[in-house]
Amino acid sequence: MWLAAFHDPVGHRGLYTHYYTAPTKAPFSDLGFYVFTFLAGHLAFQVHATRWEKLHKLGAEFPIVEPKSDWDARVAVEFWPNIGFPTPWPPPLYLDGDELQRFTYRWTGSARIMT
Predict the structure, then answer these.
(1) Mind listing the pLDDT tens digit for each residue in 2-57?
(2) Whole-angstrom Cα distance, residue 37 to residue 103?
(3) Which among 113, 111, 109, 104 is positioned nearest to 37, based on CA atoms?
(4) Residue 56's domain spans which residues?
(5) What is the largest CA-CA distance in the chain?
(6) Among 97, 113, 80, 108, which residue's Cα sits nearest to residue 8?
(7) CA-CA-CA-CA torsion for 94, 97, 101, 103, nearest 10 degrees?
(8) What pLDDT, on a 0 to 100 scale, did the predictor assign at position 34?
């Protein structure tokens, strides 16, 4: 789960969107990702949930999945799962109207998948 600060003088004040995506290359092609993004005022909230697509994988440990972009680390603050440190806030950069679409669909591009 991630939080991001949002500022757009033109107007966006709310957003609710979700989508489903999946890796296309083995050995992770049997994973599925559900992404939910919610924006209210100046706060953006995003959840990325992983699930196994194949029944024989149910119960297996999920790999760690991270967006593959330096931009993400400066805009979005991961707050769950908590790794034992306070959540830094606010992030160094904030989203604006032009970057909101990129943030919302950042999981459809490249991602780091680590076992």
Answers:
(1) 999 998 777 667 889 999 988 887 777 888 899 999 999 889 999 999 888 877 77
(2) 9
(3) 104
(4) 2-114
(5) 50
(6) 97
(7) 0
(8) 94
